Amino acid sequence: MIPARMAPHEARVSGCYAELDAVEVALFVTCLTDTFFPRVGEAVVRVLRHFGCRVEFPEGQTCCGQPAFNSGFDAEAAALARRMIPVFEPYEQVVTPSASCATMVKTHFPELLADEARWREAAARLAAKTYEFTTFLREKLDVDIGAHLSFDEPVTFHFPCHAREAYGPDDLHNWLAGGKQADLCVPEHSDLCCGFGGLFAVDYPEISGPMLADRLEDLAASGARLVICNEGGCTLSLAGGAHRRGLPLRFKHVAECLAESLGLMEPER
Amino acid sequence: MSTPTAFRQRVCEAVADERVVRAVHLATWHKMEARAESMRQLRDPEAIRELAAQIKQHTLENLPHYLEQFVAQVERSGGCVHFAADADTARRIICDIAAAHGTKLAVKAKSMTSEEIHLNDALEAAGVRTVETDLGEFIVQIDHDRPSHIVTPIIHKDRQQIARALVRETGCEYTEDAEELTAIARRYLRDIFRRCDLGITGVNFGVAESGTLCICTNEGNGRMSSTRPRVHVALMGIEKLVPRLRDLPVFLKLLARSSTGQPLTVYTTLVTGPKRVDDPDGPEELHVVLLDNGRSELLTGEFAEVLRCIRCGACLNACPVYRNIGGHAYGSVYPGPIGSLVTPLLQGLDEHAELPRASSLCGACQVVCPVKIDIPGLLVRLRVRTRRSQPLLKRAAIRLWKWMMKSPTRYAWVQWCLSRLLPDCRDGWSRGGPGPLGAWTHCRDLPIPPKQSFRKLWRERLSDER
Ligand code: SF4
C-alpha cells in the first residue's frame, strides 16, 4: 500500500510501481497541440508517466469547440461538447496542456449544457475531473515544478491570459525562478496579451497585429531567447510573429522544459 | 470582398497614427503602474473590490426601493427631481430649466452621462453657451474634438496640440510649459465662472439614505460648478446610487486609485440640497435629472452587472486593444472594454455589433475592474446575440468546421491537409492564402504542421512505451 500521505512520485521512488499505475490519466491533448506541437503532447505524457501516472490517449477526441464558443456560436460549441464528454467518460481524470481548453471544459461545458437534463451531470463530472497540466502536477501529484526544472540558457516567459483560472503570472514566474541555474529575464509587462484571442486574430488582424508587436517587443527586449509559453494558441501567434520579424525567439511549454530537465527527452535547441 | 466597415476603417486609421498610438501607450501604462502601486497600499484590495461589487449589485437588485428613497430625500432637502426616460427627454428638461432662468452662459463639470445625451449641442441650439470646466474637456471643446477616454478626455493629444488650441481660443502667448498652460486655462475659466448662471455636473455616487450627491474631481471644477451658479443641475444615470453614506468610502477608496492611482481625488464634493437659509453660499436651486436611457431594461437581464460600473476608466487603461486603437475608433461616447458592452446595450446592438467582437478576451479589464464586472464573459454573451448577423460565409465556415470536428476521421484528414497542402514560403512556414489564412498571416507567419501529429506519434510509438 502507498501511505496515504505519500505523494505518487515519492512512492515511485520507493518502488511501488504496481499501485502507482492506478493513477490513471486520460490526455486531452487539444487540437492545436495535436496538430502543431506534438512534442508538447509527448512531453506531457513522459512527465506524467515519470510521476507515476498511467496515461491513456482517447483517440476519439478532436476539438473542444472553444473557437466557436468564444465567437458566440453556442450551438456549434455545445455540439462539440456533447461529443467530447462521452469520449472522456470512462477515465478517472483528464489532463490537458492548455489552460484555456481546461477552462472551456470546466466552466463553459456546464454552462452550455445547463438546460439539457441528459447532459448536465455528465458535463459536471467531466468538469470536476479535468485538470490543466501544471495544476494536476501541483494539486494531484504534489510536484514542486520549480524544483525539477533546470535551464542552461537565459529564459523569459509569456503568461497566457486564459491561464488565470489555473495559475497566475507570479506562479509562472516562481516556477521558472525556482529552476536550477535559471537566469530569468522577466519581460517588462508580465501579463500582456499576445493578440491571439481565437477567431479575433482572423476577424481583426488590424488590431491583433499591433498587440502582437507590443508583446514581441517586450519578449525580445527581455534579453532571453527561450520563451516559456504554456498555451498553443499564444505560441502559434508569437512564434509566427517572431518568424515574420526575424526575431531569434524560441518557444517551449513548461512540460517540454520538465521533460528535458528530468532527462525524459532530448533537449531541443 | 465587401467594403470594410466604418469601424474597421476607423481602426485602420487609428493604428496608423503613430503619434496618438504612442501617446496612448505611454499614458495607459503610466496609469496602470500608478494604479497597481496605489492598490498595493490597501490592506486587502481584493476584499474591497468584492465588497464594492456586492454593494453595487445589491443596489441594482433593489433599485426601485433605493430610487424611491433617494428621490424622497433629495426633495426633503429642497432639491427638485426630474425623471428622463431617454436622452431626448433629459435634454429637454435641462434646456427648459435653462430657459426658465434666462440662462445665457452655463458651466459644466466633466460628465460622461452628459456626453451620452449630447447635452452641449442641445444647449447651444437653445442659445445657451456651455463651457466645459474640466481642463481636458475644455481643450476638447475649444479644439472641436471629441473625448477619447472616459476619465482622461485628451489622452490622445500631446502638449503642442494643447498649446495651439489654447492660443487660438484665448489669444495667449504660445507656451508648452504645463503650469503656464494650466494657469492660462484657469484665468479664462475663472472669468466664465464669475459670469455664468447655471452649473451642470454629473454625479459619481448618489446616496439613497440622505439624497446626497457625491462629485469627484481633481481640479475643483465640480465644486465650483455646483456652488457658484444660481442653479445647479446634476445629471445622473439611475444606476449611480449607493444605499448609505457609510458605503461611500468603499468606492472613494477604489475610484481614484483605479483611475489615476491617487488615494483620493483632490476634491470630493458632497451636495445635499440647495443653499439653506443660513448658508453663506451655494445654489438657490438644485435639480437632479435621473436618466434611464435604456438602463432599466438591462436591470433584469443577463447584462445587469454592467450597471455596476463606476466609470473609473481602469479597464480602458488595461486594455491592449484600447491601447492600440485609442478611443475614437470605437465610434462611441464610451470607448474601451466597458464601452464595447455599454454602447451596443444602450445604443443598439445592430449598429455596434462589431464592438464586442473586437476583443481578444484577454481579461486584463476584469483583473483591474474595481467592481469586478465580468467584461470578457459578457462580451461573449453579446457575441451570441450577434451571431446571426455575421457574414454568411463565416457562419457556413463555422458549421463546416463543426462538422469536421465531429469525427476523428475527418479531423485527422484536416490535419493531413494542413501538413501537406499549405504552401511552404520559407523553411517550413506559410504565408498568405485565402480568407482566414490571409488574415492570420497578415502580421505573422504560420508554421506548417509536422507530418507526424501527436495522435500519429501516439499510435506509432508513444502508446506502448513505458
Ligand atoms: S467597467 Fe470597471 S474598470 Fe471599466 S470603467 Fe467601469 S468600473 Fe472602471
What does this structure look like?
The complex is a heterodimer of chains A (about 270) and B (about 475). Chain A has about 270 residues and is an alpha/beta fold. Chain A has 2 domains: about 1-140, Glutathione S-transferase Yfyf (Class Pi), Chain A, domain 2; about 145-260, Rossmann fold, CATH 3.40.50. Helices cover about 50% and strands about 10% of the residues of chain A. Chain A contains 15 helices and 7 strands. In chain A, the strands form 2 sheets. Chain A has a 4-stranded parallel β-sheet, with helices on both faces. In chain A, strands 5-6-7 form a 3-stranded parallel β-sheet, sandwiched between helices. In chain A, helix 4 (about 40-50) crosses helix 15. Mean pLDDT of chain A is about 90; it is low at about 1-10 and about 10-20. Chain B starts with 5 loop residues before the first helix and ends with a helix. Chain B has 3 domains: about 1-40 and about 315-390, no CATH class; about 45-295, Rossmann fold, CATH 3.40.50.10420; about 395-465, no CATH class. Chain B has a 6-stranded parallel β-sheet with strand order 1-10-7-4-2-3, sandwiched between helices. Chain B has a 4-stranded mixed β-sheet with strand order 8-5-6-9. In chain B, strands 11-12 form a two-stranded antiparallel sheet. In chain B, helix 9 (about 160-170) packs parallel to helix 10 (about 180-195) and helix 16 packs parallel to helix 18. Chain B is elongated, with a radius of gyration of 26 Å. Chain B is α/β, with parallel strands linked by helices. The chains are: A alpha/beta (about 270), B alpha/beta (about 475). At the A-B interface, helix 3, helix 4, helix 5, helix 6 and helix 12 of A face helix 1, helix 2, helix 15, helix 18 and helix 19 of B. Iron/sulfur cluster (SF4) binds near residues 309, 314, 368 and 369 of chain B.
